[in-house]
Sequence to fold (227 residues):
Amino acid sequence: DADVTQTPRNRITKTGKRIMLECSQTKGHDRMYWYRQDPGLGLRLIYYSFDVKDINKGEISDGYSVSRQAQAKFSLSLESAIPNQTALYFCATSDSSWGEAFFGQGTRLTVV
Amino acid sequence: DQQVKQNSPSLSVQEGRISILNCDYTNSMFDYFLWYKKYPAEGPTFLISISSIKDKNEDGRFTVFLNKSAKHLSLHIVPSQPGDSAVYFCAASGYSGGGADGLTFGKGTHLIIQP
Fold:
């Protein structure tokens, strides 16, 4: 089983719909992250969480919200999806603020 | 403004030769640098890292060099193998002064190993 699991792996949704992407981890890490990858733009940080009581905005948080339900679970929501949110989304975990991060396999989201 | 730059979107290298991937950064507060490798339909996986107190770190066929004065790092793969064909991301972290966390990534370089 993967250490960082993302569901769903692929999703197509319509403009204006609410959608939630889920992430769970078995590594026991406190830090969890959501990144977005667009072609030619690398990975950009959306939100990050140090623990269940600590949520922080990243570089591109507008249009997104998150929930840290437990140490092992961190979900990303798009309240009203728009086409330019079409991207590959990655969840990651880490045990330090500067070190190696472990990534899930990604969720490919298409907003039509 | 991009803080981590990988100026070569793609690189083609013959099998058995050396692959050199380059990365530049602008934020002098970065003090830890990582390389990630990504295959299609998979998440990035950690490859090798280097702290700013070092100028070289080696792990098997992979070596990362850091030139702090030039704010430049490079990843050397020797000899290059077909399985090395992937997208390579340079990433940096460190105390930014703003309480931010997480890694700052470059745009990636697609390495293609030719047989």
Observations:
- Chain A touches chain B through 26 residues (CB under 8 Å).
- The mean pLDDT of chain A is 93.
- The CA atoms of residues 14 and 112 of chain A lie 5 Å apart.
